[in-house]
Amino acid sequence: TPPRLTDNQAFMHEYAEELVEGIVANGKCEVMSEVATRYVTRVIADLLGVPAEDRVIFEEQIADGQTVGSIENSDDPTAMDAVYFIAGYMARYLDERSKNPGDDLMSELATATYPDGSKPEMADLISLATFMFVAGQDTSAKLLGNALRYICDIPGLQQQIREDRDIVPWVIEEVLRLEGSTKATHRLAIHDTKIGDRDVPAGTQVMLGIAGVNRDPARWGEDANEFKLKRPNVRQHLAFGRGAHTCAGAPLARAEVTTMLNVMLDKTSDIRISEEHHGEVGARDYPYEPSFIIRGLDNLHVELTPA
Fold first, then answer.
1. Cα(223)–Cα(177) distance, rounded to whole angstroms?
2. How many Å apart are CA 50 and CA 66, to the nearest integer?
3. The pTM is what?
4. What are the tens digits of pLDDT across the range 255-292?
């Protein structure tokens, strides 16, 4: 919610400055591991109320864990050992907050009641807190990496943004449309229906290709595969879902990426893609995580000139 984001804004900005000052001093960095994942993991941890001493442990577990929806491990593509590890910590935190509530999101969960006064099952709260933490860091990190790639690669775009920061939200929305962090999601047909001319019997699992929807020329025009600044109605993309299935963390993701991009622009006069790692303009080579669910760079090397 806006009030919760406002409370968290100071931490987001301060931590973004801390990270960016370090990479600018070094003149280069690998964005995904040194900035994006580290930044969003700390932000969601701060919001939920994860103790500072445990945050590094979580970062290590996530880094060592398997990519969500891995296409490299055909025997167990949805292995979630890191998630189960984190869930154990969430169970402890929620138990502690139920006895001694604080001013964080897990305290709100631990003390929440339904309208009839009954309390949620602890297992449900653990599942929710774990999902919020894991989903709240991975997709946002991917969005930051994807956005920075476009800002550096599209001729003139970085300078436009430096001259007019009001463009940043427009850039983020168009990147969400073109390179949304989630490629696909799934639904279960609860009654017989049709999708187009295909019969879908009740009980069928349906995979929704969000990436395809967001590039559909019937919806977005013949330039659907191109980056277009200030595209009309761009926020109608489905990168964050729609209706009852809208991502609860969408405002946080937008705030995180906007904050970090602005700090990076404040602290630099130029950000460039490393040709040593990704090749020359027009012949880039970007490694993406091998996943049928997540769309995000495995690494992104940049060089930075201080402001």
1. 13
2. 22
3. 0.89
4. 999 999 999 999 999 999 999 999 999 899 999 988 88
